[in-house]
Fold these 3 entries.
Entry 1:
Amino acid sequence: MKRGVLFFALALVFACTSSFAQRGGLEPSMGSQPGGLQEGLQPRAGGFTGQLGSITGSVVSLAGNPLRDVQVQLQDLNTGGAVARTFTDSSGSFLFSGVPAGAYELVAVSGMYQASDRVEVRGLTASTILRIPLRDAPPRDGAGSNTISVAQYRVPEKAREAFMKAQEASSKLKIDEAQKHVQRALEIYPNYADALTLRAILELNQSDIKAAVDDTQRAIQSDSSYALAYTVMGSALNAMGSFDEALRVLQRSETLAPDAWQTYYEQGKAYLGKSDYRSSMQQLDKAASMPHSDFPLMHLVRGRAFLGLAQYEDAAAELEIFLRKEPDGPEAQQARTMLERAKQGGK
């Protein structure tokens, strides 16, 4: 598995996780009401023994407006594992009760974005506000951050559970395990757009481009409002060298999810493939300005675009950052060759 490809695939896995929460199709894994009692929580070794508390908070947009139906996950900082999940109510609020004393991280996800905060429970109640970098503009094409796709109502609970296990395994780089769970989800419900898209991401990791395109096509047929499926298809089409088709698909993704950096990154790659360096840099600048977009391949692609624009100092700077982050990666030698060219003024 190529390490550089894996980094971006993991970014897409996170987007897949976030977008599923956005679309609403999952009930809280512990407790039937948002913020209700979380079953199965036990005091942990090393914690503040014998103390139970609660965590309350709200999820808001950049403008401070409450966001409903956003998934909030409670993670144990000692193990990194998820302890419980719930959703925000109509006022953007959530509650975890019966929480053993200790250190936790709260992660709220909506669309392709997240907000997180660390809290410490020592009995009584801890509180926080999670601010997700979402605009408050009206959603386009009925695909806003708090809408639930009709397709999601058809997904059986067993399929959702298998999908969540696949996501968790992917985030821990347990790729074989992720493939097993996503396959199980699709055996239960073959038209599950989220699972088809996650399987396509895993297929991209294995350079099975045709399979990835086929799965994203099926995902879009199942749920035409699922922005991530278009982004993953665009990534696969870029890998095939079908840059014009990739741009067409990615523009649809941008319409559905205008705040997703992954889409602009793939558009930048598509324009780069067409040798349209100025348009490529415009898209890459958009991607780089967004949260969670700083990963090694971003700097490599920006370095290529700057070389095409004959901006050699900027190209060298980007390539040096990439090599600091990925000195032994599969693209490292190519980056060194480009860096030498940039230092020689493009010669």
Entry 2:
Amino acid sequence: MNDEKPGRVFTVYRMDFEQRTQEPIGEILERRKSMRQNNHFGLLQLARKLFSTSADEAVRIGVADASAGEFPAIPK
């Protein structure tokens, strides 16, 4: 039996900078067992690759760990 706990689930958002809103579009699972220097950046790159169809749309993709109370920042 496998006693490993599952990885953390991050919500992937499409952000609308003009309206200052964010729409959840999916989830991505982090399966790394230890923290690394670029964990969040690596997840963001993967989410952009999976959930965007163009470079313009990739800029609007954000990743957040809702279980930690962390949400994507929307620039002012």
Entry 3:
Amino acid sequence: MLLVACGPQDPCPHPQGLALDLKPGPVPASWVLVDPAAAREAPPLEGAVLALGAGPEDGSVAAGWLTGKDGLQLFALTLDRGTCVVQSWTAPVTQAGAEARRLVAMADGGLLVAGKAPGPGIGNDEAWVARYDSTGQTLWSVVEGEFLYVSGLFQTPSRESVTALALLPDGNIAAAGTADVNAALYSNWVLLLDQAGKVRQRIDLPRDDPRTLGELSAVVQQDDGSLLLAGTLAPDTDAADAWVLAVGRDTTLLWDRRYRAPGRQRVAAAAALGDDLVMVGRQRSGEAPGDAWITIVDPEGEATATASLRGEAPPSDTDPDESLTALAADGDRLLAAGGSGAAGGAWLLRLTPQGTPLDSRVLPGGGLLSAVLRRNQGLALAGGRLGAAGPPLLLLMAPAAQP
């Protein structure tokens, strides 16, 4: 169903369907997912790669969503070590009324998907997590939530949604999110599921002020089994700050930190680097366009480094609103990806452990990278979309040149 161009000689097979089309740009290569039907005046393909994961035999798996005549479709591509597609599928969201917000690419070519789905009662949304296999078939689908009480007399439905999803090193699945009642009272929670989709535990996270929205963006499991949950407090206000909670193996809250800084920070992704937690996102002051932003937190929750970054955008009348939206460890260094979604283009960075850029790749013309993965031999693979509302995009970056 899917094609791929692996380089100038294009050695990959070309079955019918979608294609990964080689585009001029940074060496070694970048690919854009295109639809051959577009040449026959079909609507242009829209979508994004939202998740990347390790695949079999040093390959990788890319997953995301597409829109077309049949509506929204999920997809997954299994790529070999040469970045040729060896397996692919597309499938609709099978849970009635569900909205997919987070994806995790699985090593077998399937994916985890999470977001929200209608629950019992009128206006009640609940957390939704599903597992698709390597052919796009639904293995299981779980809708889980609870009603929140506003008073002793009335039971009011809550709106729950998964906003962070992770396959943990211990094999469990963590789905974290937010519940609200009438957009006035908020709570945060983590669901722990096994690989068969059974909910093993729900951890309700204590809140100092239930009137303040807390948006969780990432879940990281430490070597001792504890969880670090990173996100943003008051994300849509001038008081937005980065926020991290540490939860022990026994589900007790170890610490809860709000990182106040000038301007507004919004956390998009987080990853472990040794014992530290690294967060990336966007920092903005006033109405000016935002800068990409990175903060490093030590095991005790203290911020040890923070920096703002700008992409190598071409000169223009529009200053791009930039953000880092994906993060992965690269040995003792970091890979970060993001972009502007507008004029500045998609960009991929290698960083020191302190967040200092070492080298970068930029695709001008607008775009955003939403996932990044360290490949074999020091290669870096990033996925996202081209342009503000374009086709899915894969970008491959070679190792940094040795001095």
